[in-house]
Design brief:
Number of domains of chain B: 3
Helix content of chain A: 55-70%
Strand order of the largest sheet of chain A: 2-3
Largest interface: A-B, 70 and 73 residues
Oligomer: heterodimer
Shape of chain A: flat
Shape of chain B: elongated
Structural class of chain B: mainly alpha
Strand content of chain B: under 5%
Radius of gyration of chain A: 24 Å
Distance between the termini of chain B: 75 Å
Amino acid sequence: MATTNPEQEKEGVPFFPNHFMTEFYVVIGILILAIIVGTLGMLFPVGLQAPADPLNTPLHVKPEWYFLALYQLLKYVPPQILGINGPMFAVVGIILALLVVTIWPFLDKKADSKKAMRVRAIGVAAFVVLAIALTIWGEVS
Amino acid sequence: MNFNGRKALRLALILSGAVLLVVAGFGIHGATASASTLEAALAGVDSQAVFVSASPPVGQDNCLHCHIAGENKNLWTPLARWSVFGVFGMVFAFGMYRSASVWTGRKAWKPLWARTVEWVDERYELSPVLSKLAAKPVPRFAMKWWYCLGGITASLFVVQGITGIMLAFYYKPSAAEAYNSILFIENEVRFGAAMRMIHHWAANGMIVMCLAHMARVFIMGAYKKPRELNWVSGVLLLILTLVFGFTGYLLPWDQRAYWATTVGTDIAGSVPAVGNLVLVLLRVGWDVSEATLGRFYGLHIIVTPLLTLGFMLAHFMMIRKLGIAKPL
């Protein structure tokens, strides 16, 4: 659709209706995916395990996949570090890491550069590889 | 005579009114004649001969032809009848004329939806706000697929809301009934298994998309000044999404749910100083029990959704205010 304002044309496309339609197609795509998933769900339901039994602990207790990496990390922390409960260190570490992530913009205040961007990209890639490795390890162990 | 469209329409309406009157008059007139007589009349047979030969029903005489031909001496009844119908006919014709002038001279109609929009806008003055929102340009550099990840997360949240409400219609948050209500949803409720499957996978998709969006923002440095609080609200939204996952996982009340929650809350309980407090607050006691189920259910369907909506609103308003970060 043609824009009437040349200033706007240079700057970008109007949110409505141009960009709105793009987002609309994305939403339609998501809904189609949801319908496919739902149809599959009617053929192969999510399912349930046995009812909860507080007196019967199963052999392998595993969280959902998005907690699996952290869970695996906790499993391999030694039980005693400097005579204190080991997993406690790990939990505190995770909370501190989350805190650092939360306030990251206030720690990294330098003007951005291509080099910093590359370093961050490598950092994210390393983190993703580590997380995936830990998750797979947690899944098979 | 200036013969324009409006006058033509008026004339056409009057003429059609006149034709209608004649046809109606013929209908009233011929109604008493037998079917064969009417057919004969339509076929072009001399009408007078036909009507003379047809004998009117006893005690019910409305045949003007008979009166004109002299068979019936009482001319007053049909005369009065035609006078009344004639007056009404003229009133009708005048009404048609007036209606036609009003119709052709009216202001052009607006569609109902446009009038509804105007009605609302006149009272609440929404259009300046909305047009300002709608006209905000989206920069060309943002027309890439990786700028879509946050929006996908938000729309998955909507999917979760809809399927979650549908599941909540049938779910019962009690130790005795939770498991059976899930079985009921899976086996009895129409499309229940589909809703549960969509809810399950959209939850996973939401976490993946949230993390992907976060990685994109982090790598491109979009969190830098002036967008610090966008990032903070985003991290809080990620944590809320994980809370959704953690609390929702217990609700089926099967072995996996029960023991994953036991271990998860145990880990939360190992935080120094506040660990036990957190543990008791999460479990509502020292063990995972029915009370825990109620607490997680409340967190899952009321507390977390409200907080998420609030932070999402803040997140979106900040994006609107500051615009999309220009990449290096």
